[in-house]
Design a protein that fits this description.
Elements: H1 6-10, E1 36-37, E2 41-49, E3 53-60, E4 66-72, H2 76-95, E5 106-112, E6 115-121, E7 125-126, H3 127-134, H4 142-161, E8 164-165, E9 174-176, E10 183-185, E11 192-193, H5 211-214, H6 222-237, H7 247-258, H8 263-266, E12 282-287, E13 294-299, H9 310-313, H10 323-339, H11 350-354, H12 368-372
Antiparallel strand pairs: 1-2, 2-3, 3-4, 4-6, 5-6, 7-9, 8-11, 9-10, 12-13
Domain Protein kinase: 41-359
Organism: Neohortaea acidophila
GO molecular function, one term: ATP binding
Length: 383
């Protein structure tokens, strides 16, 4: 039987009469360290806060295990969104009874002072934190990426099999365990069944947003592969691949790197006229630093911008590479090229991605743990 420690013994449920308002004006719950939620979860710390919810780390006093609790904002819209996320994660967990597909596990749920609370397994950190600690501006090692990427593709495979779009994949929403050898995709707050997905140009966090989303095209599971491609580039280099200030500038930086968006895609787009003329010419919306007025500048992307194409931006410091390392690098460039095809139909699918030559090894393939231990020894790369 679990014996609670001193901090857990002191945790207690707080009566509603103790505060006039348990919520902030925007509906987020006021986190109080040491509060006992649902009679069993002792709040240790706040570990995240987003538009829709606050996340705390707590100790389950019944098991002694740490958990992560997502506390939805106190309004009807956010409550329903929390219910939808609960439905998505429950379905994915049921589809993966042996817990091998790298989707976060939902343990249970409860209501607390009109807030829906989702109890998830606890992991150590997200990949954004890993990058800041081990790979700021330089990226983590290719061996670590070889360990992480197949796990991401396994999760994408399960999402596709379950007919679910995650629609917000980025380093912040990919968690790793304490040993940093195992990851889980989390935060399905904006996820939807593919059949229910609504065309909107603001789905997915902007830097990880696929061009078909920006252009108002019908989209599918390929939007998640695009996001993973952007994430893998960031892990390899320590830098964001497409950092546009708005959707128009996202299209600019995407085309600088990947070339002109084909007319066949523009013809299927409902929002192309906001960025292109009838001949498919792109107009960059640029603000004058002196007047503050926005002007239009036609840009030609028949060729990628010098030094901004994918291969150049991934070139890094290849002079000191061994032939084997150079071979891995070339394979990684090819993998990202396939993840980041402008035409979603031509984008690689999760199963083929897992079989890509980048994951082949002339020697025995390293275990996740051995590979990811090399994260700390990240090699600086010039990009």
């Amino acid at each position: 039987m679990f014996a609670p420690g001193p901090g857990i013994k002191e945790a207690r449920a707080l009566d509603e009469s103790l505060l006039d308002n348990w919520d902030y004006p925007d509906g987020h719950y006021r986190i109080i360290l040491g509060e006992l939620l649902d009679g069993r979860y002792a709040v240790e710390q706040q570990i995240g806060k987003g538009t829709f919810a606050t996340v705390v780390r707590a100790v389950d006093t019944e098991t002694g295990l740490k958990v992560a609790i997502k506390i939805a904002c106190n309004n009807q819209t956010m409550y329903k969104a929390g219910q939808k996320e609960m439905e998505m994660v429950t379905l994915l967990n049921e589809q993966d009874p042996k817990d091998k597909k790298h989707i976060i596990r939902l343990l249970r749920n409860f209501d607390h002072k009109a807030h829906l609370c989702l109890v998830f397994e606890n992991l150590s950190a997200d990949l954004r934190e890993v990058l800041k600690k081990f790979g700021r501006n330089v990226g983590i090692t290719s061996e670590a990426i070889k360990a992480y990427a197949p796990q991401m593709f396994s999760a994408l495979g399960l999402l596709k099999e379950s007919e679910i779009l995650h629609a917000d994949l980025k380093p912040d929403n990919i968690l790793v365990n304490e040993k940093r050898n195992w990851l889980k995709i989390c935060d399905l707050g904006t996820a939807s069944f593919a059949r229910d997905a609504e065309v909107t140009p603001y789905l997915v966090s902007r830097f990880y947003r696929a061009p078909e989303v920006i252009l108002g095209m019908e989209f599918d599971y390929a939007i998640d592969m695009w996001s993973i491609g952007c994430t893998l580039f960031e892990l390899y280099t320590g830098r964001i691949l497409f950092a546009g200030a708005d959707n128009n500038q996202m299209l600019r930086v995407i085309q600088e790197c990947r070339g002109r968006i084909p007319n066949r895609l523009l013809k299927r787009s409902t929002l192309a006229d906001k960025h292109f003329d009838n001949d498919g010419n792109f107009f960059s919306q640029e603000r004058d630093n002196l007047t503050g007025k926005v002007g239009l500048r036609q840009l030609n992307f028949n060729k990628t911008a010098p030094g901004k194409d994918l291969r150049s931006r991934l070139s890094g410091n290849t002079k000191g590479m061994t032939p084997e390392e150079a071979k891995k690098h070339v394979a990684f460039v090819d993998l990202l090229d396939k993840c980041l095809q402008l035409d979603p139909v031509r984008r690689i699918n999760p199963n083929d991605a897992k079989k890509h030559p980048f994951f082949e090894d002339s020697t025995s393939r390293p275990t996740h743990e051995k590979a990811v231990k090399k994260v700390v020894g990240a090699v600086p790369r010039k990009v």
